[in-house]
Amino acid sequence: MFYDGNVSAERKEEKKQSKYAIDVENLRVRYETSSEVVMAVNGIDLQLKRGVTLGIVGETGAGKTTSMLSLMNLIETPPGVVEADHIYVNGTDVQRLSAAELCRIRGNEIAMIFQDPMTSLNPVMKVGEQISESIMLHGRVSKKDAMERAARMLEIVGISPSRASEYPHQFSGGMRQRVGIAIALACKPEILIADEPTTALDVTIQAQVLKLMKQLKTEYGTSMILITHDLGVVARMCDEVAVMYAGRIVEQGTLKQIFNETLHPYTEGLFNSLPNIHNRVASLKPIPGLMPDPANLPQGCAFAKRCPYAAQACYAEQPARKTYEDGHSVWCTAYRDAEFHIKRKG
Amino acid sequence: MDRVEKSCKNSAGVRQNRALAVWRQFRRNKGAMIGLIITAALILLAVSADFIWDYETDVIGMNIADRMISPGTKYLFGTDNYGRDMLARVGYGARYSLVIGAVSVLFGLFVGVPIGTSAGYLGGRYDTIIMRMIDAFSIVPSILLTILMVTVLGTSLLNLMIALAISTIPIFARITRASVLTVRYNEYIESAKAIGASDFYIITKYIIPNCFSPILVQATLRMGTNIISAAGLSYIGLGVALPTPEWGALLSASKQFIIQAPYLCFFPGLAIMITVMSINLVGDGLRDALDPKLKR
Fold it and tell me: What ipTM, to 2 d.p.?
């Protein structure tokens, strides 16, 4: 049903050796402009096991999209500067790849669904062509075969294949997002990054798109990273969750750990700012204050200023990672005190 | 499965369908159709000029007996001071104007569009250097630049076209770069990179098609301007030399008789005006028809 990428024997060997679909260590991304340096991502480690869906949660500007773009080496340099101990995608260090090798991996092994379906399609190209080009770029397929596969992809995402010869502006937002998904999945990538795939859609379409993604994931065993700030979407889709704040991961664990055994004060704040279905008249408790300016980050914990538990030490130094036996990690200085716990947990 | 097959048949004819759709849209525009018919007639006239008139006898051959005859039944456009039929001369002149306009614009596109695209797409220092050079180039008014080049290269039809083409390059480079810049930061460019498209592929399949309309419109407008510039240069004696019946040269030769025989100036001037106008009408119509967003 899908096209199988023409991967050299060497690449296959590399892939077999890597246990992780994505293995990133100490990723830092900053944007240098003439007036300031924006520290977008400040040292994150990320391991994505094969077949697992990882949710990355955090508010706007936390560095979610930037860190994902750097996985595909899609950050514009300049102004962007990407540094990392390593970025292994499917066992390949993407930082060391040439432009041509990158082109071979993008779309074929790692693909991306973009946030805004209104702008992520080429307005002067028919949707069928846009799906088929991804197939044609990664293998010697005739135009006719590629178009045939594109039509099937459309059918898979629930759009009549007869609409393959229409332009993006003739589609609704939800349909365009489904076209985006069809493009991303056309080459059956092993890793799929979905950057807020449902943010621009209304709720009914959201449910459809999520259902579709989940279905495709179980069918093809794709490893997936889902960027979102919707905790409901996370609960529905993800096996593991990483919470990001000001360019750092502050808490990471399984879905159950994050939702039921919350450790970090910021995660607690996120849950508190959700409406409570059992007590509909209760007022929401938003986190006071704003995220610090990424061009001017504090020396200590970036969340300290908004944190109800902040102590003197929080302002002085960066919190270190603390990993529990069950694999649940938290980056918070308060946990040096073994007795410390947040209110939600108690 | 039936639907899949049907849609594949559809997609096989994608190219044809697109051309057909553009044509359907274009046909609705009355002005554009008038422009197209006139332009087509002019091209036909230019191509078949040699079959209608004999260059040696009808176009440049003198006939002193019939000199300075006003427009009438025998000579529809009248005759000039050497007794040459103005209809033959103006008709034959279509050939020069159209060739000069088309060749100079095509050459300008050929050089200017790659310069502008690479500057806009690559950006950075390369962009700065290239565009400052283009700026330096366009400080000199284009007519002055053309005059300078024709003077250096010598007056001939070919040199005239080269000079016009060179003065056209900065305009295409600028307009291309500007439209590339509006396109290149769109999310669909990023998504094209994410499916593994190379820079060259992105430029040819994504950037240029999305910048096509302004370039096309500029090209047609520029063709009109270049025809006028060529006529102007011939008028001041720097273009095509007499007795070649280039419209500007005809105007120049007729200006001394403007009181006794105004028709001598009228017909070449009218020819220039109609040509430039019809080409511009076609360009406008094409722009509307090619924009997929306007399609209903």
Answer: 0.72
